[in-house]
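Appendix B, Record 12. Input sequence as logged:
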Amino acid sequence: MYAMSKLVNSSFLIPLIPLSASFLIAALLFSFNRTMNRLTKPVSFLLVNSILLSTLYSSFLFYKHLSGKFDIKPFKLINSDFLISFRLNQSVEIFLIITGILALLVMLLSYLKLPRRKGYVMYLTSLCSFFGLLFFYCLSTYSNNIVFFRL
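Logged structural output:
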């Protein structure tokens, strides 16, 4: 029982992995612009694998039939307390898997079809951060008022 709650509590890694990878690449892109624009294959590999890892982790959670709700410690920002809470159930896990598969398809097609010009690395970085935010929205409690799938 304790291990299952640890898996539910670690599901914040699903949006964190693509967001951290895209922020790392963005920081490197702003620091070393010319060099990073030449490294299109390693950047694409890192960003696609971050989406793949998030999708595999959400499919693992779906396979284990885990559900629950957890909160990240509240933090104070400009006289306001913010509490981030995630809810994980079977419909959210299915939606995470579908989002991850679509993200993989879009990023792989972008890798295969787009020419590697100056804005290519920034495009893939913004695409990965968009899908990371989409993963975050899928897990948030505000998006779970509507049931997408009834299982």
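Confidence is low (pLDDT under 50) at residues 145-151.
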